Amino acid sequence: MTFNELLERIQLPIRYNFTRNEISEIYNLPLPSLVFLASGIHQQRHPGNNVQLSSLLSIKTGGCKENCAYCPQSAHYQTQLEGQGMLDENEILVQARKAQAMGATRFCMGAAWTSPPQSGPMYDLLLNAARNVKALGLEVCMTLGMLTQNQADDLKEAGVSYYNHNLDTSPEYYKSIVTTRTYDDRLQTLARVRKAGMSVCCGGIVGMGEKTEDRFGLLEQLNHLQPHPESVPVNMLVKVEGTPLSQSENIHPIELVRMIATTRVVLPESKIRLSAGRLEMSEETQALCFIVGAASLFLGEKLLTTGNPSGDADKALIQKLGLTPEQ
Length: 327
Ligand code: SAM
Ligand code: DTB
Ligand code: SF4
Prior knowledge:
By secondary structure, this protein is of the alpha/beta class. The protein has a single domain, classed as Alpha-Beta Barrel (TIM Barrel). Strands 1, 2, 3, 4, 5, 6, 7, 8, 9 and 10 form a 10-stranded parallel β-sheet that branches.
């Protein structure tokens, strides 16, 4: 593509009908052209070089009935993980305050469930946790598995503004990653989250042994959601011993950069979150990811159950790159 063609592409309006072929063409552009295109779109639509900081807390850990092949929390696999029942309201608040003091503006609570309970004390606790965290002045995000419309409406009412529910990969590869639920189940929950008026946080994982075609398939699905998800986490698989994917081959950092850049081009307004796997990424790789479109990350030494860079290391990186944390 010539310089003028690239410049023209940067200005194109949002589309909801990208085909896999078109996505593949973007992904496979010569890297300098891809970086220019993605970075141009990013600077145009997300001016300010800002970075949004969220913090994660696992409020119910392990023992999950689903068999997601990447997940240390699945009861189907023998990992070193120590399970934990649901945290109480006070513990959640203590952790939320810590996250806020560290500089996070959004607090994301995750639970290893197929779906949250429909009612009862645990359900009330969830809703109270959302209210309490919101009252601290934090944005509230939850990721609890599949939701009914009622549950989605209640969470929205309790102050949850983002719901995370990933599609992970292409519909065809998904069948080799999880067999206890379907892609359509995921899409249904996403539709309910949208209907309830919450913002959608939906993305995927790279490094699960997928073909590049599967990455295009995921981006095609995300691109066809209307509106696009407000937040798109791109996770690099954290290989956990005991899970079926623990021996997966590493992906080359440039492949990750291509994935983030292509995400930026097909979902130009979404906030791209450089999520799991950052302990394995050099600062240079992360810098490239921020250049081509990532604009948010998880702050704090723990994701849900696995490691993440320290808050101090991340703040130093953010400063080095001249990014401004969102207030
Ligand atoms: N149980 C809920 C669900 O599946 O939606 C919420 C929690 S689940 C742990 C949230 C997301 O974390 C998954 O959808 C997956 O994309 C991501 N994830 C889980 N294990 C991971 C791993 N080992 N490496 C990278 N991402 C992972
Ligand atoms: C997402 O896409 N990544 C975060 C968040 N959503 C909930 C979770 C990553 C989990 C990594 C494995 C773990 O720590 O258990
Ligand atoms: Fe359960 Fe979520 Fe882990 Fe799948 S990703 S095993 S649903 S906690």
